[in-house]
User: Fold these one by one.
Assistant:
Number 1:
Amino acid sequence: MMTSSSSSSVMRKLDVVSPVPSDIDIANSVQPIHISEIANHLNLTPNHYDLYGKYKAKVLLSALDELQESKDGYYVVVGGITPTPLGEGKSTTTVGLCQALGAFLDKKVVTCIRQPSQGPTFGIKGGAAGGGYSQVIPMDEFNLHLTGDIHAITAANNLLAAAIDTRIFHESTQSDKALFNRDVMFRRLKKFGISKTNPDDLTPEEVNKFARLDIDPDSITWRRVMDINDRFLRKITVGQGPDEKGMVRETAFDISVASEIMAVLALTTSLTDMRERLGKMVIGNSKSGDPVTADDLGIGGALTVLMKDAIHPTLMQTLEGTPVLVHAGPFANIAHGNSSIVADKIALKLVGPGGFVVTEAGFGADIGTEKFMNIKCRYSGLTPQCAIIVATIRALKMHGGGPAVVAGKPLDHAYLTENVALVEAGCANLARHILNSKAYGANVIVAINKFSTDTDAELNAVKKAALDAGAYDAVICSHHAHGGRGAVDLGIAVQKACENATQPLKFLYPLDIGIKEKIEAIAKSYGASGVEYSEQAEKKIELYTKQGFSGLPICMAKTQYSFSDNAAAKGAPTGFILPIRDVRASIGAGFIYPLVGTMSTMPGLPTRPCFYDIDLDTTTGQVIGLS
Amino acid sequence: MMTSSSSSSVMRKLDVVSPVPSDIDIANSVQPIHISEIANHLNLTPNHYDLYGKYKAKVLLSALDELQESKDGYYVVVGGITPTPLGEGKSTTTVGLCQALGAFLDKKVVTCIRQPSQGPTFGIKGGAAGGGYSQVIPMDEFNLHLTGDIHAITAANNLLAAAIDTRIFHESTQSDKALFNRDVMFRRLKKFGISKTNPDDLTPEEVNKFARLDIDPDSITWRRVMDINDRFLRKITVGQGPDEKGMVRETAFDISVASEIMAVLALTTSLTDMRERLGKMVIGNSKSGDPVTADDLGIGGALTVLMKDAIHPTLMQTLEGTPVLVHAGPFANIAHGNSSIVADKIALKLVGPGGFVVTEAGFGADIGTEKFMNIKCRYSGLTPQCAIIVATIRALKMHGGGPAVVAGKPLDHAYLTENVALVEAGCANLARHILNSKAYGANVIVAINKFSTDTDAELNAVKKAALDAGAYDAVICSHHAHGGRGAVDLGIAVQKACENATQPLKFLYPLDIGIKEKIEAIAKSYGASGVEYSEQAEKKIELYTKQGFSGLPICMAKTQYSFSDNAAAKGAPTGFILPIRDVRASIGAGFIYPLVGTMSTMPGLPTRPCFYDIDLDTTTGQVIGLS
């Protein structure tokens, strides 16, 4: 058994006990290392990071500029099989693998994960810092506010929303000339190459054209957001105050992490690029069908100012003292659900050749890994050497035909006793994920996240099925129970996979084909035999194509609980027709997102929400009840 | 002329030029000192503060605990005469005075001011960091996000709002028994002294009583908030989604700084006290008329967790390197509009005997100083030695009968040329503020904030009127043009006033009289001859008295533009009847707030909002266009 190295590092030795205590008890039992020590160990000088308290720091983009000439480390993406509603331990595996690489295999390593939404933290899900002996700490700081990135997104998103309604209101109540006299209009004129600045020199048509955006209220796709599970905001009517003169409108709130600004943050590569993307976000159309952007509203700069600190990823640490970069947010359906490009890029430079960056892709690999490859890597230009697929016996049994797994209800007997046949049947799901992930060119490793009820026969059945399906390797891990020590074999396998990776990244589809052809390429990877478009979807595809947006990659908004649109279709369904209900566009972030079925973008609170248990010990200042 | 001392301090010498450049140009021309140096100069050790970047730090409440035995410094409150819509430089004077005391008079000094709302920053008002050569820097960090306190308030406020609607929804769709089985109910049972925990042992009435809050939707006073000027949220309908089964309700958003949680933050004295106050916030009544609290909803602990970092004030610096504590928020109508008690308390210990804490009270002294004395000092137990009233020739001319002053329009000729008679006539307003402020026992100093168009004859007329009205002193200051050097005379006067203060704090009203008697005492100080209550106000006073809340202090929600309810009534109106339209309660924060006329709690964006000018220079990272 290896032991934690300590000479060259700030790593911390874990005292592991059994049975595994609660997540918060483990997190609270460890004294975090001052984050400046973690930064120092990464060779970050104080001018390249800003402290946010003692255990968080923002790593500034200037670090990336300075390291521009350095070589990258190995790039590993962690996806999963189609999960049960309980989750199969993707974050836990991401963290555990890094603890193994950093604290046991003496590698330079950085974990890249997403900031959790506070909505689920207080709602149904609890925290998202990993679990057991593989966690990011301090757990409460990770789950609450962090360094304010999501709050900045909320502020920017809602400033834009307020600007839209107020703009329509002012255009409807004021003359062309009064509107024109706002001097921002002169800038807009300049943009259109007109040098006349005296309104009297312009024809009424010219004044009208440049002073009015003429937004079609029915076309507005920009909604307000809030980082709270507030179901009563799913559909609302605004503008009912007497001063708004009857300009009422139906709209809705989404959860903040579903904001296009979150997607911009995840996909941007620099401050200049972020300014561009925020400015070109499309909020709807003019009555004549032209896209209206944030810059048309004169607000792109203000949005960038609100987001200027959020662009810097947050440095934290694992239970074993390895570094973590937390950045961007969790929504893997209407967004792409990956950590940010800038975090991954900074991490790759910081670990350098021979080091490892392990980045998590949200939801099952059909969504997370697919978007990682076709959207995120396309924009970043990075190539992963290794793609991990996390699998559990529990989820494989479900895919093999086991009874439904429901959050909050006890697991059926089938999941607690040996049933190799069920596991083997379920491996069809795993096999398709392996096949799809392998097609991108990376070496695929299956990480079997072992539970105490799993038997050797079951675990070995998965290993065999994985190798048969073309995985580079399949490894049983126990990082939840043992920390990094439980993922040492996985770490060794990942190292070998990275060292032996030779293929370039192959995308699932090129960008220069039509929107429908791209959708169909992805649908095929799900096992669909065809795609069916609603009338609305057809219209939108036509509109976006006409507006010149058809060259963007596709971000499918689909359930994570099946390859298909039907969450109940487990395993590896084939022969189904994938229904596209609607198609939307995140032009600033840079993708078109088709809606496969109904996607809720605002969760609700359950009858027994997590907040019942959460409190502060006001004498020690410690958070209690966070899970 | 004195020059900035440098031996014993981290103070910075200002190079003052004339004419005064724009605020942002001045702010950007100065390299801020690393905040750890500022902290060090205050004898704060690193365990008592958390860095938030290089120029902000949260000073932890533990500093207060450690200094419990130390003696306090002098306590100075800055109010103003009834202002014009342009503002009379209260923040600028607060900052300038501190620059004088710290950088020129070699005193230990801390400025205590409020965090600005981002709504007006992007809307109509611009930043709030002072002005000219008397500013808090970095100006952009001061005006944006700061250390996330307002974002935390937004999150906590809206989590509670979501919990209210969801609770009503679940109570309307689920059985008593199902609701009862949420185990938080067992805690609620215990609170009521019932030890039975098996639902079957309870009578249906007992189950019903403890499982249901039975909130009357029409009684809900808790609204959602957003730190954005979003007029379309002034009146909205929520719950229109199909899943909410028709449980629609009319409600509204306020701007975040108007949240009761902001008032709690400003008035709390410790973590334990904040937990209590957040838990006892009343969100409405049950159908039988009992108040329903945050703790009844099981959410007091979660709110405290969301607010646990916000309770620590943020350390920043002035242009001349003196320390500033920024805390709590700006709404001086439905809140009390003062900086926080904890910031003032920490500051008083840090400066120690002979040092000065200068704290700003929002709006005119009829609102800001009155609430400072009767609410804030009542809860803190602190006594100010000196109350400053900031006056300008401009505002006094308006009170003397000058034409209306309108934001965004050029000033009338009357304000730009000498007119001593107009100034003298306007001093009636100043005189009443002096009289009212003096009644609390502090020595009153009038700070005449000099503009370049003011003449000596005008300035001397104000000095004379101030002394005639009983001011301890009246001093002409030019800190906007000259920084601390321009407020040295004011500093000397303040020092003398503090050293010679002898009286204890005398409140305007005792707590143990009725709500109406308290309202009438305040109305009398405005010059009113009586008070008129609407039917709604009468009903609410009766309700709050019945619910046991009549012993709280009163926080009048009144226009700041007149002593009366009529913003157009300038000078020192008398003989009017003050109308009370409604009465509301912030039970957690600890006050009753009568609404005098209509108070907007959600500003709007103007036709030409500030955000048009705001952008980021993406090569330097510098914010441009913030004013």
Number 2:
Amino acid sequence: MVFEFLQLIGGFILASGWIPQIMKIVKTKSVKDLSVNSFWLVFLGIALMETYAIHLVVQGVGVAFLITNSLSLILIGLILIFIYLFKDNKSKDTKPQ
Amino acid sequence: MVFEFLQLIGGFILASGWIPQIMKIVKTKSVKDLSVNSFWLVFLGIALMETYAIHLVVQGVGVAFLITNSLSLILIGLILIFIYLFKDNKSKDTKPQ
């Protein structure tokens, strides 16, 4: 029981862990150091795991895993959108004042 | 069976997905846009899930999950080390030539 609980907490921390990265991008409008390939691979990996999560819920188990995995998918998807939105931006401190 | 396979492939893609980000950091020596808070939270989340993964293996199941989760833990850990190593670097294109 303890380990399932740790897995659940870990899943929530892992999923919500991307919020500070999103806040940083919104603040700086700079994404130059982020690897778009990495975020696409991570997005693809999580999307494949989402099929398993849905499969588990259809069988009546694993709702928490579906919630945390879906949260990760949404937040990584948001980061990908920001990477394309801001990819031509020079980061704030290099812009002429 | 199919969904377990998709989960496994998803886990490997998710874990190895961080390799392009590591290569980008090694090339540019610039980590300014990466949120160290995010990578700490993601590291913590994966570490908690690692306890569950080890628990599963002790019970004779889930070896693949332990492998992919450990790979994620190592790669995210490496990114954290790089963030501290290069955090004072200006990215290459802003360095005086």
